[in-house]
Amino acid sequence: MNIYVVRRGDSVDSIAEKFGIPVETLILDNQIAYPFRLAVGQAVLIDDYPNMGDKPPLQVNGYAYPFIEADTLSETLPFLTDLSVFSYGFTIEGDLIPPMASDDWMIQKAEDAGVRPILTLTPLGADGRFNNNLVSVLVQNPKVQEHLIWELGRTMLEKGFGGVDVDFEYVLAEDRVNFADFVRRLTQVMNLFGYPVSVALAPKTSGDQRGLLYEGIDYRLLGEAANRVLLMTYEWGYTYGPPMAVAPINMVRRVVEYALTEIPREKISLGIPNYGYDWPLPFVRGETKAVTISNREAVQTAIDHGVNIYFDETAMAPYFRYWQYGIQHEVWFEDVRSMKAKFDLIKEYGLTGAGYWQIMRLFLANWLLLEDMFTIL
C-alpha cells in the first residue's frame, strides 16, 4: 500500500506504470471520473495488496439515513461490522418515532452481509434539531424511561435490530447524572437480551470543559454505563464556523488522550468524518454558511477550477481555494492521508473501533486503506 501525491505532468497512466499496477485498478480504487483528470496535490491510494476479503479486527460502524443509495450501501457493507440507522426519535410520553422513510430494506441488506443493524436513538425535534428539553423530560421521569425502553425492545425484536446507539447532544448540565443513569438502565435491560448499547460523546478535552455541547456529557459515568462509546471527533470546521479542518488531528488527539483518562480503551471507537465543507469568503460570523461536500466532489471541484490541493501538516488535512462568479471559496475535506493519520491514532492508543459520520457517499479508497492497515496477516 502506498499513498501518492499527484505532481504536475502526472496522469493515471504514468502513475499506474510507476507503481506497476493496472490503470483500471488505480481509477476504480480512487473513483477517478472520466476523462480521468487529476489535481496537483491530490492524494491517491496505490493498493497493490491482495484483497483477502477479511474484515479488519475493529468494530467499524457507519451511520446512514434510510434514503442512502442502495449501491452505495452495498459497496460499503463489506467493510462494516455495524450499520447505525439514523434515526429513531421519541415523544415526551416515551413513544418511539421511526424514521420518515422505511428502514426495513437497510436492515435486511445488513443482515445479508453479516453486519449488525443498530437502532440509533436521538432526541430530534420536529425542526430537525436536538431538543434538550425532550432529553430532560426523559431522564428525569422513570415512567417515561420505562415506556421508551419497552418500545425500543419491541421494535428491535420486530425489525431485527442487533443493538442500540444513544446519540443525545446538547444535554443540559443539570441532566448530566440523570442522562448517565438512563444509559445505564437502558444498557442493563438491553444486555439481558443480548443487545449491546453504545453512546455518542461530544469531543471533550477536559472534564470541566464549558459549553452547552459538553457540560451534560460525563465521560466517566457514560463510559461506565454503556458497552461502548463513540468519540464524535469532528465538526471543528462546521457549517456556520470559520474555514478549517473538520477533524484536525491535533485536536482529535487531545480528545482521545482525555477520554483514556476516564474510559477503558477497549470501549472506545474513534469518530471519523466522511465529508468536507466549502466556505464562501470572506467569512463573516452569523452570515457565512458552508456547503457540505463529499471527498470526491472536493477533488473534482479542484480539478474543474484548475487549482492545486494543499495539505496542512498540523491538522493533517487537505484544503484548497478557488474562485467562482467573483467569489473566493475555501474547501477542507478528507483524503487518504488524513484518514491514515486517524487510523494511525487508533493504532497508537490501542482503540478498538471506528465510527463514520456518515456513509451516504462512497469513499472507496478510505475503506481499502482501513482494510490494508488493520488486516492481520
Taken together, the total number of domains comes to 2
**Percent of residues in helices:** 25-40%
User: Helical element count?
Assistant: 12
Low-confidence stretches: none
CATH architecture of the largest domain: Alpha-Beta Barrel
Average pLDDT rating? 96
Q: Return the CATH topology of the largest domain.
A: TIM Barrel
Rg value: 21 Å
CATH H-level superfamily of the largest domain: Glycosidases
Across the major sheet, the strand order is 3-4-6-7-8-9-10-16
Oligomer: single chain
- Tell me the major beta sheet: 8 strands, parallel, barrel
Total E-strand runs: 16
Cα(first) to Cα(last) distance is: 14 Å
CATH class of the largest domain: Alpha Beta
Question: Can you write the helix and strand succession as a string?
Answer: EHHEEHEEHEHHEHEHEHEEEHEEEHEH
Supply the helix-strand structural class: alpha/beta
Strand proportion, as a percent range, falls in 15-25%
Q: What is the approximate shape?
A: globular
Structure write-up:
This protein has 377 residues and is α/β, with parallel strands linked by helices. It folds into 2 domains: 1-48, LysM domain (Membrane-bound Lytic Murein Transglycosylase D, Chain A, Roll); 59-276 and 342-374, Alpha-Beta Barrel (TIM Barrel), CATH 3.20.20.80. Helix content is 34%, strand content 21%. The protein has helices spanning 12-19, 23-29, 70-76, 104-112, 132-139, 142-159, 176-192, 219-225, 249-259, 295-304, 336-349, 364-374; strands spanning 2-5, 43-46, 59-64, 82-90, 96-97, 116-121, 163-166, 197-201, 228-231, 268-273, 276-280, 291-293, 310-312, 317-324, 327-332, 353-357. An 8-stranded parallel beta barrel has the order 3-4-6-7-8-9-10-16, surrounded by 6 helices. A 5-stranded antiparallel beta sheet has the order 12-11-15-14-13. α11 packs parallel to α12 (364-374). The chain is globular, with a radius of gyration of 21 Å.
